[in-house]
Amino acid sequence: MIGYFSSLICAVITFGMSLLQLSITFGAPFGEYVLGGQNKVLPPKMRFISATLFFIFIFVGMAYLQRCNILYIGFNSMFVKIVIIVNTLFLAYAIVGNGMLTKSKKEKYVMTPFAIIQFILSVVSLISI
Fold this sequence. Notes:
129 residues, mainly alpha, globular, transmembrane helix, membrane, transmembrane
């Protein structure tokens, strides 16, 4: 049961991140929260990165939903587990990058807690289901 809720919460956070990336792609002034936080509005060349992250986060969120049997996206359970492992490793990097390497206070103090929470929940999801 804890694995179910961990996966569900991870999916919700990941879909939220995808919406953030989508809004940044279309010029919303949230650039200080992502990608090093050096631009309030991302320049057009960097918006491609946000658009790519939008699609990646949608896919990862759907993998979490398949992991907890809410949605079936057609992949075998081993592939879904690999996607979640890769995302968990990405979250570990995000904790270090957002928490220690970024110069943006908004990225550090807003995005790092999300990365920590999702990292813990993702590990629980991996070992509980």
